[in-house]
# Entry
Amino acid sequence: MRGGQDERVLQQALNRLRAEPTLAELETLLAFLARFVLDTPFIQRLMRWDMAILRESPWYQEIAQEVVEQRREEWVHEGIERSRRQTAEHLLHALEHRLGEAPAEVQAVLLDLSLDQLWDLFDAALTVTTWTELQAHLPTREHGPELSTN
# Structure
């Protein structure tokens, strides 16, 4: 579409698309591409192009589906992370209720554990009587300082 920034060129291209029924689906693509060089209000007036038409486009549907899938993955990840954090906080709260204030090292480890690791600690949390006993049940940290015994 040489000269695409010229409104007359867009009008001519649109007339050609509308003259050939098999090319009618390309009107949405033309509107999309024209948006890079022309103002949206002009394109909408000329092409009677609005979001309803765009939403019917197979390209729009594909992009929308990709966005939905991406957001769904983000929501699941955020939900799992929120659940992990809340589980760690609840476990820590219950342990502190029984054993007193947790050593900083234990707090750091508990708040960093995966959800599965936290669930594995629940049985131990019900039976331990000291922080030292609990520390024996904590997974070893791959990095960072070793846990002190209190």
